[in-house]
Design brief:
mainly alpha; 315 residues
Length: 315
């Protein structure tokens, strides 16, 4: 019971971090139809900017200021870069964001170097939140979950209860009508892109010190983000949340289980030795296969439900 509950909590906290990452990409795609390959790079930029601000001031200032600064950077990218190639179709957009991801990594390495930086958890959030049986659950994990849920509630309320949210949703389906009513649709899209980048940066502020802040962090999570978005359904925030939680829990449980098929066969009386056909595969533990499980999940979703768990569009 202790193992199950603690692993479930860790899986949910990891899943909510994945949602923080994927929500911005989901918003950008659902509103603009742009699949931003540089999204994980804005996550990385958010972590590094937060590291710099934390060193100069403190973590709490970084928590507010870093997403805002990265959001402004994202809006500038859309206004002076992405908008220029938007008229040529999706392929130039993909190539632009793909190239931008490499540019941002190189910029980070020029400024902060190639090694990991010491971006630490603030002292007031460093410690146990509670103890379950004999295992403690960190305060910072709980803080991550709280921020992710607060962000989810804020996005929902903004899109459904505010004027700007209604304009954004209308601009998605009827841009000409929205423009005829006097709204600046390109500016709306710029704000959406900047907001999506700010959400990625917020995940970087929260996740950078929980894990590691180094130039390879964008590549580490980049592929997982796209798995979440596709599995959940392209453009579906609810789908992204569901897929994030599923992948987070499944992968966390898999990492914690150190059993192989050979162990199972041995328990039912079947002896497995190096001479057994397929021995190298039978000896693989679930923990060793954990990294490929999200991608296996992705393949199965694409085969049996191409629109994703809650998707309404195929891209």
């Amino acid at each position: 019971m202790e193992f199950t509950l603690i692993t479930l909590l860790n899986g949910l906290s990891y899943g909510l971090l994945l949602f923080m990452l994927s929500s911005g990409l989901t918003l950008i795609f659902s509103m603009m139809g742009v699949l931003n390959f540089a999204h994980a790079s804005f996550y990385m930029i958010g972590a590094y900017v937060a590291y710099a601000i934390s060193g100069a001031v403190n973590f709490w200032v970084a928590l507010v200021l870093a997403p805002l600064l990265v959001g402004v950077l994202g809006a500038a990218v859309e206004r002076y870069g992405l908008r220029s190639v938007h008229k040529y179709g999706h392929i130039p957009e993909l190539l632009f964001t793909f190239g931008l991801s490499y540019v941002l990594v190189e910029v980070v390495q020029l400024i902060w170097g190639r090694a990991a930086v010491r971006y630490v958890i603030p002292p007031e959030l460093d410690g146990p939140l509670f103890t379950l049986y004999t295992t403690t659950f960190p305060i910072y994990r709980g803080f991550m979950m709280f921020i992710a849920l607060l962000m989810l509630a804020s996005i929902y309320l903004m899109l459904t209860r505010t004027r700007i949210g209604l304009v954004i949703q209308a601009a998605l389906t009827h841009p000409e009508s929205v423009e005829a009513l006097g709204h600046n649709v390109p500016r709306v899209f710029m704000l959406v892109f900047g907001g999506g980048c700010a959400l990625a940066a917020l995940a970087g502020v929260i996740g950078g010190n929980a894990f590691v802040t180094e130039p390879g962090m964008a590549a580490t999570v980049g592929s997982i983000i796209f798995v979440v978005v596709v599995v959940g359904g392209m453009g579906s925030l609810g789908g992204a949340l569901l897929a994030s939680l599923l992948i987070g829990v499944i992968q966390t449980f898999a990492v914690a289980i150190d059993y192989s098929m050979a162990d199972v066969l041995s328990r039912v009386g079947m002896m497995v030795s190096p001479e057994t056909p397929g021995y190298s595969v039978l000896k693989l533990t679930i923990a060793q296969t954990a990294p490929i499980l999200p991608y296996l999940f992705l393949v199965l979703i694409l085969i049996f439900r191409p629109k994703g768990l809650m998707g309404t569009r195929e891209g």
